[in-house]
């Protein structure tokens, strides 16, 4: 207990017998304290607001307890007593923040943290409750330090500020800027609903590109057909494109000599993108898409605004806003289709204005559109991951793959008493249906129409076709070229028993006599048999599995054999003016 005069206090360091002397005295109407802090420095200061001896003793006991907690690492200690919260954050932004995001993170933290009461507090005094109060303020409408009204931030935005502050304090603690526990570790994340991303379909891509301004058309087309980020397109050089080999190298992001993932990539070119790159290669300067003066495009360039205008002109909108320029804005109406004739305001008798509301698609959402189109087309997930250049396939599947309403409608068809499209029997008039029902030879190979329909899937198709045919009394045969076929023939009773035995073992997954198809392209593939990607819902129902020999089961990878070949899709560059 501290007393008037001198007293000894055990600071409870790890070294037993380590004591520090503290002294408390009164001069006039003020009380003063003299003690040794955790770094061994003697501190003398006046106790403000203290009038009695009991209050002074309590203040001294609290100071000694703070020294004890700092020595035990239970309370942070700044390397300099003058270091403030913003001083620590500014050090992290200048010295330790990744170069790719330093500018954007500085702008974010300066807007939401710098100038607040918390920013000027010493690090030795800041606690978890101070950060909780800051996050609570940001999550509701508030005023800036200049008195300007600011809207409430979303939960995701507040969590982003929290994550950067936590990283800054943790890095400073590891490098000895302060000791103790990171005060942001105990802060709680705000509820942040998952964002619903808007994407374009393959049919909407040429319509949108046709309406983009010529100077931005190649930039946006590259974002769609290669799934590149804005900085990767802005930093791309002409030497990164090889039209003869149909290859593009992704090596830079703006002025940085590496990408966001820290590694370059080699991507194949698709034919619809070639005309845009041919036009871009004719521009002056080393950059593929140069700025107004031939140099690199500035970071502040706004291709997303050009994209929004193009979506309006292409009719890719969420609705139309009908409003009167003399009525309050809250009286405006939103309709799904434009009115045939402009109506008049019931109050002012003036013609109403009709404004298209474009779909809320950002430039980065073109990257989401690329991944979604590829996955819906049946491209394997690991291939899409390589194209998107993600380190984890889960990122590709959870963040960049977006199911659309038709996919969900096909999946929910059984709830309406219908049949899922993946389980419908083949059309008898189609080549596949005729081959499975009549006595002719069943083709064992089908055209590989999309990537990912590999040899294992082809082998599975052949095996199932053979099982169905064997159940009808046919026997499998292999031609001299290695082509598998199953034909109905007149067999003896012994051969019939053998066929039934083969059918039984094949139904149990034990058939081993069927050779796997040879790898590589085949010149004898029937082009009339097409493979179309769809979204499957899992295993077929018991009723479907107990159906006749023409019953269909979904294949691995979401593939099925169409009853009839679909008409070829329209060219993705139709109606596009190359500029």
Q: How do the helices and strands line up, and which of them pair or pack?
A:
Blueprint: E1 5-10, E2 19-27, E3 30-36, E4 42-47, H1 53-71, E5 77-78, H2 85-95, H3 102-112, H4 128-138, E6 142-143, E7 149-150, H5 155-174, E8 178-179, H6 204-210, H7 214-226, H8 230-234, E9 241-242, E10 247-250, E11 265-268, H9 274-280, H10 303-314, E12 317-323, E13 333-335, E14 353-358, H11 365-376, H12 381-388, H13 393-399, H14 405-411, H15 431-437, H16 455-471, E15 475-478, E16 484-487, H17 493-507, E17 531-533, H18 542-545, E18 559-561
Antiparallel strand pairs: 1-2, 2-3, 3-4, 5-8, 6-7, 9-10, 10-11, 12-13, 12-14, 15-16, 17-18
Helix pairs in contact: 2-3, 2-5, 6-10, 7-9, 7-11, 11-12, 12-13, 16-17
Description of the structure:
By secondary structure, this protein is α+β, with helices and mostly antiparallel strands. It has 5 domains: 5-75, no CATH class; 93-179, no CATH class; 200-316 and 359-402, Intergrase catalytic core (hpI Integrase, Chain A, Orthogonal Bundle); 319-357; 421-561, no CATH class. The chain contains 18 helices and 18 strands. It has helices spanning 53-71, 85-95, 102-112, 128-138, 155-174, 204-210, 214-226, 230-234, 274-280, 303-314, 365-376, 381-388, 393-399, 405-411, 431-437, 455-471, 493-507, 542-545, and strands at residues 5-10, 19-27, 30-36, 42-47, 77-78, 142-143, 149-150, 178-179, 241-242, 247-250, 265-268, 317-323, 333-335, 353-358, 475-478, 484-487, 531-533, 559-561. Strands 1-2-3-4 form a 4-stranded antiparallel beta sheet, covered by helices on one side. It has a 3-stranded antiparallel beta sheet with strand order 9-10-11, with no helix packed on it. A 3-stranded antiparallel beta sheet has the order 13-12-14. α6 packs across α10, α7 (214-226) crosses α11 (365-376) and α11 runs antiparallel to α12 (381-388). The longest helix is centred in the first third of the chain and has 20 residues, at 155-174. The protein starts with a strand and ends in an 18-residue tail after the last strand. The model is unreliable at 1-19, 421-425, 435-566 and 568-579 (pLDDT under 50).
